[in-house]
Amino acid sequence: MSLLGAGEIRELAAKLDLKPSKSLGQNFVHDANVCRKIVRTAGVTSTDIALEIGPGLGSLTLAMLEEARSVIAVEIDARLANQLPITATAHTDRAHLLTVINEDALTLKTLPADPTVLVANLPYNVSVPVFLHLLEILPSLRSGVVMVQAEVADRLAAKPNSKEYGIPSLKAAWWADVTGAGSVSRNIFWPQPNVDSKLVAFTRRATPGDDELRKKVFAIIDLAFAQRRKMLRSALSSMYGGSAAAEAILTQAGIDPTLRGESLDIHSFCAIAKLG
Ligand code: SAM
Predict the structure, then answer these.
(1) Which atom of ligand 1 is found nearest the CA of 106?
(2) Using CA atoms, how far apart are residues 124 and 24, in angstroms rounded to an integer?
(3) What is the pTM of this model?
(4) Closest ligand 1 atom, CA of 52?
(5) pLDDT tens-digit series, residues 207-219
(6) How far apart are alpha carbons 88 and 93 in whole angstroms?
(7) Structural domains of the chain sorted by starting position, each given as residue range(s) with its CATH number in brackets
């Protein structure tokens, strides 16, 4: 199967009269080797129902169609969503395995089948909320690889006591083990973005609690990092009715109240949330 190259990307954009939108993060990949490498890194196999968010002109989609049992692609831009099946038919006899959905991934609720693997070059402005939303609503997603802005990748994969560690790292860690999976040159995009990109790989694991606990944990995480330099006893004081009460809860959870949020892993936040 031939994938999209720079020439065809430009031709398709001209045909659709598409001026890539910055707010929709429309930077299209024109390097077939990179697309195949991403799909390989995600470990997509012939038993997988693969999900792509933001297929754009189809660079990654075609590479996914080479490997997956089927592909579901969710694209917000109607012009791109309408063109994609046409492009797929022109490139492969596997186009019937593709389902394109013209929707906003942020408000996505259901899909026609349960995807097992996520492969996406995520729109940069909404990459973290989209990633967390998918992990929440699609329990069938067992693993995947997403491409995001380098700085965001570092935050998603960060571990405690690093400057990148924070809300995205902790919320992603509720759902999955997340690791860095390499850098991507900005030269492979049209138009070329002015930030670098990285790949992030994830593998889902059992969550540390139910959805009620998750909501509490996420609220505590938001507070702990609202003022990153504050000690936990004062960062959480509004939640517990004063810093003395917050200190008591933290001590009961076995956590030093003078620590900052950046020192705690997801299990420590769970220990706090479980106390009320
Ligand atoms: N996958 C293509 C590639 O690698 O060449 C395009 C990736 S481009 C970085 C992001 C894509 O996400 C664009 O096609 C854009 O229209 C789409 N997009 C932006 N916001 C979206 C949203 N909220 N839901 C679904 N798609 C979105």
Answers:
(1) 23
(2) 8
(3) 0.96
(4) 1
(5) 999 999 999 999 9
(6) 8
(7) 6-204 (3.40.50.150), 211-275 (1.10.8.100)
